Amino acid sequence: MVGYREGAPHAHGVLDVGDGHRVAWWVSGNPAGTPAVVLHGGPGGRATPGWRRYLDPARYRIVQFDQRNCGASTPSAADDLVDLSANTTAHLLADVERLREHLGIERWLVLGASWGSTLGLAHAQRHPDRVRALVLFSVATTTRREVEWITRDVGRVFPREWEAFRDAVPPGDRDGDLAAAYARLLHDPDPGVRDRAARDWCTWEDVHVSLAPGHRPDPRYADPAFRLAFARLVTHYFAAAGFLADLAPGGDLVAGADRLAGVPGVLVHGRLDVSSPLDTAWRLHRAWPGSELVVVEDAGHGGDAFLAPVTAATDRFAALP
């Protein structure tokens, strides 16, 4: 198996980041190694041990954390009356900085995938002096256009499944913003309505990432609490186009890629990724001076096919000053 062993954390804590939020974090690998922060996907995923396979534990000090309202961070987006108003990209970027300062880290490598690549790019564009390098895979920048693609246009590839996804919202919402429509259902007072909406959203999540050979349904969606928290957070962010309007020119991180000049980076993307089509990574690569794009021909939106090219990139950056 390609990839490193998932070593156990040697440090763990919970950081009070304000607004009533407490963010859970873990550190593994070499305490004296090159710092690296892992930004998980979703929004609403979590910091799982599998992420550590991409980083050499002998050479990296590996920092992981659960983003606001998910995983071991509190309050949970699965709580009945959770308030997500203090969960935006700006809040997450502030949390990343608080955690970096709390751990006494000056600069680190940033590793992220899918939504984590969006957050990683936003962090690096805001604080390029804090970033040694970026390694991003299954690249997404969460623009309004990308959200429209995931929630509507990719239905051209999966028409039967998309019609079921669309028809799960009230008729009056079917021609509008589907992420916003689902977000309303996911906060309905009726727990049955919330659960059905979470199931329907997560069923569609499994469909639009399923094109690559060997795809298997995500077992996380069998957990009612996980799928509710995940669906609530994804729709919360998608309905707001990633809350990027005030963070990037025109809400598009590609337009701000010139801020990354001098920051090395590797983008790894699957040719068969119809959830986040390759043109996003291509545009970012063209706009980011000094970046490298690696296309994995038989990969979709994630999976073990990324282990070799991603670990090759992190290995290369391990000795950066």
UniProtKB/TrEMBL annotation:
GO MF term set: aminopeptidase activity
Main location (coarse class): cytoplasm
Gene3D superfamilies on file: alpha/beta hydrolase
Recorded catalytic activity of this chain's protein: Release of N-terminal proline from a peptide
Start and end residues of each AB hydrolase-1 domain: 37-301
Keywords per UniProt: Aminopeptidase, Cytoplasm, Hydrolase, Protease
Annotated localization: Cytoplasm
Enzyme Commission number(s): 3.4.11.5
NCBIfam families from the UniProt entry: pro_imino_pep_1
Family from the record: Belongs to the peptidase S33 family.
Protein name, UniProt field: Proline iminopeptidase
Organism in which the protein naturally occurs: Kineococcus mangrovi
